[in-house]
Amino acid sequence: MPQNTGPAPPSASSSGRNSHARHHHPPPAGQIELHESEPGDYAAGGAAKKCSHCHTTSTPLWRRDPRTHKPLCNACGLYLHQRNELRPDKLIAVDNENPGGGDSDGEYNGPECRNCGTHKTSTWRRNKAGEQVCNACGVYERMNGIPRPLALRNDKIRPRTKH
Q1: So where are the chain's domains?
Q2: What CATH code would you report for 32-94?
Q3: CA-CA distance, 106 to 119, in Å (whole number)?
Q4: Where does the record place the GATA-type domain (predicted)?
Q5: Which fold has domain 109-154?
Q6: For residue 8, what are the CA distances in angstroms to 2, 4, 12, 65?
Q7: I want to staple 27 with a disulfide (CB 3.0 to 4.6 A). Which of 20, 23, 31, 142 is the partner?
Q8: CB 76: neighbour CB atoms within 10 A?
Q9: For residue 28, how many other CB atoms are within 10 A of its CB?
Q10: Which conformational region is residue 100 in: left (phi greater than 0), alpha (psi within -120 to 50 degrees), or beta?
Q11: Alpha-carbon distance 146 to 57, whole Å?
């Protein structure tokens, strides 16, 4: 019987990898790669995360600066990824002027809900009378047959929950 003295050929089971495994390739020169984290991801020690650039603590998705690996809010992370530079202070200041997402007291020329008076909504609808109403008032009136009570108004737009 001939003996095999050379090393055994690599197999999928012995190396722990198969030929179809995904390989990480660095981004092309000049582009920045962002790493996403889970929406509920928190910094070490159980403290809430804080964007290392604009210092916000609330964002729909946390990202990481690929150079420093520090957390970035979604806005700063996307800006960095698309433009290869950090979001300017001017844009951060605009976001900080109205942090609650509610209506501002300044002049506004956009649409207004004929029922509750809001200027912010995920989508504009028309009621049976043809008036422009916010999403919440339009859906409420269609489901219940009566206009939405103003007591139910909430200035925050909540995103859909993911299953």
Answers
A1: 32-94, 109-154
A2: 3.30.50.10
A3: 12
A4: 45-88, 107-160
A5: Erythroid Transcription Factor GATA-1; Chain A (3.30.50)
A6: 15, 8, 12, 43
A7: 31
A8: 23
A9: 7
A10: alpha
A11: 39
Q: What is the pTM of this model?
A: 0.39
Per-residue pLDDT of the chain (163 residues; tens, 9 = 90+): 555 555 555 544 444 444 444 555 555 555 555 555 544 444 445 567 899 999 998 888 999 999 999 999 999 999 999 889 999 998 888 777 755 554 455 566 778 999 998 888 888 999 988 899 999 999 999 999 999 998 888 777 677 777 7
E strand intervals along 70-127: 71-72, 124-126
CA distance 152 to 136: 9
159: tokens are 């995103």
Question: What 3-state class would DSSP assign to 64?
Answer: strand
